[in-house]
Amino acid sequence: MNPSDILIKPILSEKANKQTEKQNRYSFVVDKKANKLEIKKAVEQFYGVQVSQVNTIIVPSKAKAKYTKAGFIVGRKPSKKKAIVTVAEGETIDLYGSGI
Q1: CATH superfamily to which 3-87 belongs
Q2: I want to staple 86 with a disulfide (CB 3.0 to 4.6 A). Which of 22, 43, 51, 53 is the partner?
C-alpha cells in the first residue's frame, strides 16, 4: 500500500492540538485494514520523521436521524480507524503547510 492509501487525513481538533503541543503526538484517520507497522512506515515516508510509538482506535459507527419535508430519515455514519502517532523527541510534522 502507498502511504497516501494508508493515511486518509490528519485530525485537526482542539484535543489533537493539545496532544501535539504537550506530548508530541499527531492524530490521523487511517485505513481500517492498516496495522501499526504499516502506519509507522507510512508516516515516516510521508513526513520524513522518526516515529517512536503508534496507538490505534476503532471508532464504531453512529446512528443518525434527521427530520425533512419528506419525513424522518434514519441512517448510519460509517465506522473509522484512528491512529495516534508519537514522534521522536525534537521532530515535528507540519500539518498546516506553512512551510516555515
Answers
A1: RRM (RNA recognition motif) domain (3.30.70.330)
A2: 53
Contacts within 8 Å (CB) and 24+ apart, 39-45: 39/6, 39/7, 39/83, 39/85, 40/85, 41/3, 42/1, 42/3, 42/6, 42/7, 43/3, 43/7, 43/85, 43/93, 45/3
Q: Residues 64, 68, 72, 75: is their CA dihedral positive or negative?
A: negative
- pLDDT confidence bin for 98, thresholds 50/70/90: low
Domain range list for the chain: 3-87
Query: What would the pLDDT profile of 46-81 be if each residue is shown by its tens digit?
Result: 999 999 999 999 999 999 999 999 899 999 999 999
> 52 near 86, Cβ under 8 Å?
yes
